[in-house]
Each structure stands twice: as C-alpha cells, then as structure tokens.
Amino acid sequence: MGLRVLARALLSSLVTRDTVKLLLSITDASQDAILDRLVGGASDDIATHCGRTFLLQKYQESDPQTFDADCERLYLSQFPIDRDRVTVTIDGVAVTDFEVEEAATGLLFRENGWPETGLEITYFAGYVSPDQARTWSNGMTVTLGHFVKPSAAAAFTAPLIFEATTVTGGSAAAAGSEPTWPTTAGTPVASGSNVTFTAREVEEVPLALQDITYLEVKTRNDRRQRMDGLRGMTAESYSEEYGVEAAASELAPAVLRSLDLWKHGR
C-alpha cells in the first residue's frame, strides 16, 4: 500500500481569522498577525493529533486495503472524496466498472472485486478550507483554485460549490455577473471573459470542526494573555485550574475530547 500527494492543499486553516475575531469580539486589526499564527498552529496540531489531512488534496494510492471478504469494497485512506474525480487503473489499464458507494468515508464498490496488487487510484479528498471559499458577489476578484458559493438569490446547488479552474491573465481576475450555476458535478460555467468555474461535489470544513478549532485558538489566546504566575481563576460558580503552563502545541483537554469522532472518522 502506498500513498502519494499529487497536489497539496492551497491553504491550511480549519477556521477563518474573521470567524475567530467575531467570536472573540475583536473589532480592529491589531491582533491579526497573532491570530493568524494561532489559527495556523491550532489547525496543524489538530490534523496531526487526528492523523488526518482534513483539507482538499489530490492523491495517488496503490493497493489500498480491501474492506470485505469478497473484496468488492475498499476504503481509500483519505476522505471525504470527490466522487466525480476518481480514476482507477489495474495493471496500468483504466477501468470504470466501479462506483463511489460512500463519498464521506472513501468507500468504493466493484462487483467484479478488487485485486490485491496492481491497483492504482487517483482521487481528490478532503474539505475545502473556509478561507478558500467565498459567497458570490458581482465583480469579485477570483483566485485560481479557490471556490465560490452561489449568492442567496441564486438557485440552490448544494452539495455543489464551484472551483475557479480557468483565470485569464494570471492567478487572479475580476469575475463578471453571477452565472446560471450548473447542477451537475464536473460541468464548467463562465463568468464574463476572464473566469471559468467548474462544479465540484465537495464541502467546506464542517462547522463542528471549525468550532473545535476556534476553541483551541481561544484557549491559546487566553493562555497568551494570562498573567505570569496565574494558576487558577474563580468567578461565581465557575472555577478552573491552569497548573503548569502547557506547551504551545498541546491541545486543550476539551478539544481532545471533541476530536474523538474526527480522529477515527468512519
């Protein structure tokens, strides 16, 4: 079994700085640089603890482990997967007689069974970083590889969001008016003459995981601002003990408990 990353995630954050500032009631930019470091560190440590790469990447995997006794089902090691961007070869020959049975868990089904060797699968797996997806506004600047979500006035397209796959004149360009969004994954649509989007059946980092990441960022920010020597605090009926100062990369106990589901994932 082997796994290669063919295209790495463009961003690494599991929650946006703006979300953190909103929840912390921070209204100016004086702490932006610090919050960016805290968000990045918390996101990386959560991924390391869970043993998963949460954000969307392109992979090539050889000879994954089969799931059932009949060898009809197998799990890819990375998930959730984009069901419309999975390609399979057996001994170098492309095959299409399979289906994505569960995109959320990376489960593939093949009635003829999967071989133990000679199998190679290329696929996209993971969530779109919330920093990588924005809601549509006319004339918005679009960056190659980033995603847009239709405006409230547009037709409902979930679970599809739209990746900027062609940007004329460089890595970013101004879009035109909002297009009529396609409803089939893999379908391209142009906005003006500068940008083409492609429908993708992928999703942003779930709100539950964003909230967990925020909790870790808040914990680290509180720790940063705590007075030297402070080992506990009591307010009305609530109290907490800080003990010895934790290492910067040590996740808070409440965060660790919340990550149990995300660590296993299936």
Number of helices: 5
How many beta-strand elements?
17
The percent range for strand residues is: 25-35%
> H/E order of the elements?
EHHEEEEEEEEEEEEEEHEEHH
Strand order of the largest sheet: 1-2-8-4-5
The chain-level structural class is: alpha+beta
- Envelope shape: flat
* Low-pLDDT regions: 243-248
Please give the share of residues in helix.
10-25%
The major beta sheet can be summarized as: 5 strands, antiparallel
Average pLDDT across residues? 89
* Gyration radius, rounded: 22 Å
Span from first to last CA? 19 Å
Distinctive features:
about 270 residues, five-stranded mixed β-sheet, 17 strands, single chain, 5 helices
Quick structural overview:
The chain has 266 residues and is α+β, with helices and mostly antiparallel strands.
Can you offer a commentary on this structure?
The strands form five sheets. Strands 1-2-8-4-5 form a five-stranded antiparallel β-sheet, with no helix packed on it. Strands 9-11-12-15-14 form a five-stranded mixed β-sheet, with no helix packed on it. It has a three-stranded antiparallel β-sheet with strand order 3-7-6, with no helix packed on it. Among the domains are: 57-125; 130-203, no CATH class. It has 266 residues and is an alpha+beta fold. 21% of the residues lie in helices and 30% in strands. The radius of gyration is 22 Å and the shape is flat.
